[in-house]
Amino acid sequence: LGWLHWRSQSTAMLATGDWLRERRQYVLPGNLGVLAGREDALVMRQPGGFSLFDPQSGQAAPGVALASGERLVGADENGNLWLLLRDGSLDILTPDGQRRHAVAASAPLANASAQSRWALARSGRWLARIDAARFAVFGLREEGASLRLQGAAEANTQVAIGDSLFVIATPRRELAAYALEAFNRKPDEPLWREPLAAFRANDLALDEALHRVALATEDGVLLRHASDGTSLPTVPGNISAVLWVGDGPRLLTATGRELSLWHWREGSFTHEQTLPGGAQWLFRDGDQLLAGSDTGFRRLDFGHAPVAVDTGVGQVWAIAGFD
Fold first, then answer.
1. Which residues, other chains included, contact 176 with Cβ-Cβ below 8 Å and sequence gap of 6+?
2. Where are the beta strands (DSSP E) in 47-157?
3. Does residue 161 have a pLDDT over 80?
4. Cα torsion for 284, 209, 271, 7, to the nearest 10°?
5. Are 7 and 206 in contact (CB under 8 A)?
6. Distance CA 208, CA 281 (A)
7. What is the DSSP string of 174-197?
């Protein structure tokens, strides 16, 4: 099942304090991955369909199989799942189980291969398809999908798509950003582009409200201003995943061994905290913050940092700010 997490992240307040901690660990039953968060459940992608995961019990419900020719291409900011049908039309599955038609049949979407990867904007207005040699971005309207942008790609190309920007990173080729609403600009003319020397692009995160792009590579996180590509100080390390946290702003990075939290101060990122245990992916939806791998994931929460309290018999550490 070819699918990409959306990488345009809302900057709605997530943190209620400065200290990040692990709240709970979960073991995943089989090859599942987080697709969307809902009020009392997580939607998990699985080969050929999806299932619901209950964080309270730590159990996954029986999977829902897609019909022949259907593909799950993403989830929007409301928790709706978007399904691509064989004829190139798109249906929506709502959180309450209703199915409705969203986009009429479109020839450009009907010819996708089974190996195509997809990235859906949180608003549901844009859909990107990544194939072995090409990428394409489509505008989605009820009357159909229209081709907005296309170009060269590779199997390990990473993309991030928002409401106004599309960012693409192809290792040993280039990092580039395009305006989706291209007024006074040719459709295939990037806002900015630069050579990309990295051998691997592990993850790509776009936050339009923060005007920031973060690209995780084996040589660290490359940081750019989203609108003009201005270079910002690099965060070091062999980084496997990266996630923006809106307050600060702060940046969460993952390696195979640990998670690190970085805070933007006076023109550079300052290392703020390290949590033991690595991750292959990071996920955020509303107030849910998850870090995981193929076999399980952890729920993370922000709270107030430990402080020393004098109890009369010596200092102890008190922690506040968690439910």
1. 167, 168, 190, 192, 193, 194
2. 49-54, 59-60, 64-65, 71-75, 81-84, 90-93, 99-103, 117-120, 126-130, 134-141, 144-152
3. yes
4. 40
5. yes
6. 20
7. EEEEEESS-TTS-TT--SEEEE--
Q: Is the pLDDT of residue 322 over 50?
A: no
**How far lies 24's CA from each of 38, 139, 224, 291, 299, in Å?**
18, 39, 33, 11, 5
Around Cβ 4, how many Cβ atoms within 10 Å? 18
pLDDT at 188: 79
Residue 255 CA to residue 233 CA, distance in Å, equals 19
Q: Are strands 250-254 and 81-84 parallel, antiparallel or unpaired?
A: unpaired
Burial (0-12, 13-18, 19+ Cβ within 10 Å), 258: middle
Q: Are strands 19-27 and 144-152 parallel, antiparallel or unpaired?
A: unpaired
Q: How far is CA 114 from CA 50, 69, 85, 138, 268, in A?
A: 17, 9, 12, 18, 42
Measured between its terminal Cα atoms, the distance across the chain in Å is: 37
Q: Work out the burial of residue 155: count CB atoms within 10 Å of its CB; fewer than 13 is exposed, 13-18 middle, 19 or more buried.
A: exposed
> Any idea what DSSP says for residue 61?
P
Predicted pLDDT of residue 308: 55
Between the CA of residue 88 and those of 3, 148, 174, 287, what are the distances in Å?
16, 16, 30, 34
The SS3 call for residue 247 is coil
- Strand 296-303 to strand 288-292: parallel, antiparallel, or no bridges (unpaired)? antiparallel
Q: What is the pLDDT of residues 70-126, one digit of tens each?
A: 999 999 988 899 999 999 999 999 888 899 999 999 988 987 888 899 999 999 999
Q: What is this structure's pTM?
A: 0.87
Indicate the residue type of 303: G
Instruction: Show the tokens assigned to 289.
Output: 């913050």
